[in-house]
Amino acid sequence: MIQNQNISVSITTYLVQKAKDYKQLVKLNLSLMVVFSCVVGYWINPTVGFEPLHMLWLFLGGMLVTGAANAANEVWEQHTDKLMKRTATRPLPAGRMESSEAIAFAVIALALGIGLLWWKFNLLSAFISLVSFVLYVLAYTPLKKVSPINVFVGAIPGALPALIGWSAASNSIGIAGWSLFALQFLWQFPHFWSIAWLAHDDYKKAGLKMLPTNSKDNNYTSIQCVHYTLALLAFSIMPYITGVTGWIAPIMIAGAAIYFLYRAIQFFKTNQDAQARQLMFASFIYLPAVYIALIIDKI
Fold first, then answer.
1. Which numeric CATH code is attached to 23-172?
2. What is the DSSP letter of 26?
3. Which residues contact 169 (CB under 8 A, 6 or more apart)?
4. How many C-beta atoms surround the C-beta of residue 138 within 10 A?
5. Contacts by residues 33-37 (CB-CB < 8 Å, ≥ 24 positions apart)
6. What residues contact residue 79 under an 8 Å CB cut-off, 6+ apart?
7. Burial class (CB in 10 A: 0-12, 13-18, 19+), 288
8. Angle at which helices 174-198 and 28-43 cross, to 10°
């Protein structure tokens, strides 16, 4: 009896640890935010109503593709991750998972995700998902050690989820879909640069070129953050102009952009970690605020 209990405890412990490892492998919190933007992009398309089952399929397909991309990214960067405090405990660099397991998961998840999007929606949304995966894994990831342009390249797949949702709804993109893409694309620069500023020493130790400049001794990074948040404020009106929303959403989006811009300006004034951290938190607020505004306007 005691032996059986010990075996049961061991199995439970193993399964719990394995679940934690896969949570890290697919970067669950990031994946949920990405897929949320995809589902909202689908729902706000005027060609569809409130379709919970379809949104569930889209959520599942999006999670599979996003999880595959993140797993492939961690396979590629496992040796780099060992060098950084914030990533050293991930399952691959920590030795809790073999590369073969992560690769098998990525391949299966990608195939299932792309297949599901094609089956339940259309070829266009499946194709954009595949493009997003390829850009993230085969372009953005290796470029991180080569040039700061990696942030620009990475911002493309990072902004495609809203476009995937939009195209899943209407089997087209159009200027309306691109306006959603633009908001998420521009948001990523101050978001990533504020994080990279705070983690600069860690990134530098691993040879990753995540800031637009090699040093924190000047305000080039912070002025770039101001430029992109200004662009976000200007683009706040785009969902209205392109017919995606009425007036409610642009006003709310502009309000979030003004706060984001304020934090960017404070960062520019001081060039200090404390203000970079506040800008980072503002970026966490901005994107959910945009999609909540779009949902409210749709309702």
1. 1.10.357.140
2. T
3. 41, 42, 43, 45, 47, 48, 121
4. 12
5. 33/287, 33/288, 34/62, 34/66, 34/158, 34/161, 35/59, 35/62, 35/63, 35/66, 35/161, 36/288, 36/291, 37/161, 37/162, 37/165, 37/184, 37/287, 37/291
6. 93
7. middle
8. 160
Amino acid in the structure at residue 188? Q
Q: What tokens appear for 203 in the block?
A: 């990134």
In three-state secondary structure terms, 199 is coil
Q: Which residues of 235-246 are buried (b: 16+ CB within 10 A; e: fewer)?
A: bbbbbbebebbe
Query: If you search the block for the tokens 């949304």, which residue do you land on?
Result: 125
Give the pair of three-digit tokens for residue 28.
């669950």
CA 290 and chain centroid, separation: 15
DSSP state letters, 230-244: HHHHHHTTHHHHTTS
C-beta of residue 164 within 8 angstroms of C-beta of residue 120? no
- pTM beyond cutoff 0.85: yes
Per-residue pLDDT tens over the stretch 35-92: 999 999 999 998 888 889 999 999 999 999 999 999 999 999 999 989 888 888 999 9
How would you label 248-280 residue by residue, b for 16+ Cβ within 10 Å and e otherwise? ebbebbbebbeebbebbbbbbeebeeebbbbbb
CA distance 129 to 161: 8
Domains of the chain, by residue range, sit at: 23-172, 174-299
CB neighbour list of residue 29: distance below 8 Å, 6 or more residues apart: none
* Token output for 178: 């691109």
Radius of gyration of the chain (CA): 20
Distance CA 262, CA 264 (A): 5
pLDDT digits (tens, 9 = 90+) for 257-297: 999 999 999 999 999 999 999 999 999 999 999 999 999 98
Give the separation between CA 206 and CA 56, rounded to whole angstroms: 38
